[in-house]
Amino acid sequence: MMNGYAVFAAPIGYKYKKTGSHGKLLTRDEPIASIIQEALEGYHTF
Q1: Could you tell me the CA-to-CA distances from 3 to 17, 24, 31, 33 in Å, in that order?
Q2: How far apart are CA 27 and CA 12, in angstroms?
């Protein structure tokens, strides 16, 4: 956590992806991430 890495389960719409130098990083899990983004933006403008 002190280095800025997530240590908990990935939130909905994200997944952990292994990288060579950093270990696991959170990345968007498409198409779920786009659906959730659209829903939250629609709620925000409602």
Answers
A1: 17, 13, 29, 25
A2: 11
